[in-house]
């Protein structure tokens, strides 16, 4: 009998030994036996239990009790810190501006700045719209332009009645005022000959719109004369002539794409230009004598863009298939990828300051992933494409690093050449 009791005791102790294995206790710190042993300190701190425990950090004053961590905000629990232009509490427990229209339930209009627009300032349009330009009663695009005022100066191209605006005539923006066009998810195709969108006055910003199908004479996707124009996340493709053509405009182009325009992606004359993080591809033709990006007597800079797989005339006369400058002086062309732009003799030419670009006749050397993104195989040295050591100063606007084509912040390590910042 004693031997049998000893055997039972050994088995029980062995079972307890397995239960109190340090690895088990590390995974199960709330187990009562572990907490009763030396493996888990009963009085060990468990992090914050209320906002009062987070008062020491003014930037992280909200306690997420489930994790014991002090955060800036907790979705659906405490978003009181998210005010002003950062009203959205993200999954990272940080306050952000709006990212999509769904972040703005009052107006359904997210501004490029990250602010939600005031519905009272928005003119809502829809294809074939016949309403009063309100959120629940959208009007046509020409009607909205006629109703622009200094206060009601935002035009929102809704997608509630379709995404293609093809029944309206070509779009003329000629108001001497600030105008913001929000076009995420929408496509504009003119029914009349000429440029699809013409800007001739005022300060116009266009965000997210796709412009295509301009035809006839002077059939550029976007034309600007003597105005201020900002393009962000705009696509101008398959138009009759240029993707964009400007004369003496103050122009900003970022995170936009110009494709399949037979006279070239850009023809910019006079004025100023800030072009960054754009893709210019598949433009031109085998008879194109000019560059697919043509800069004439313009000041500013053309940086971190990808100019690839365009066409140009074969040889002769010192043709330039990529970026061509004339009388542009100190205009900066830097940190771009300019490759495989037809049979022309040069990728870049002219009197711009042309430095620190990757140029060549074979886009395969870049090792592009889909959509002209860089890949793990994209060279870091010999040649330098990723992690450009000379890029830092030009990779900023007003002291802040610029976002890449996809809206991802630069740099990952160092800023990469071209429109995409590689991230593994």
Description:
The protein has 424 residues and is mainly beta. It folds into 3 domains: 44-97, no CATH class; 101-237, no CATH class; 262-424, no CATH class. It has helices spanning 2-19, 22-27, 32-36, 141-146; strands at residues 62-64, 69-71, 88-89, 95-96, 122-125, 154-157, 164-165, 171-173, 178-182, 187-188, 197-199, 203-207, 210-212, 222-225, 228-232, 235-237, 242-247, 250-254, 257-259, 264-269, 272-276, 279-281, 293-296, 299-303, 306-308, 320-326, 332-334, 337-339, 346-349, 353-355, 358-360, 396-397, 400-401. A 10-stranded parallel sheet has the order 5-6-9-12-15-18-21-24-27-30. A 9-stranded parallel sheet has the order 7-10-13-16-19-22-25-28-31, with no helix packed on it. The longest helix has 18 residues, at 2-19. The radius of gyration is 29 Å and the shape is globular. Mean pLDDT is 89; it is low at 1-19 and 41-45.
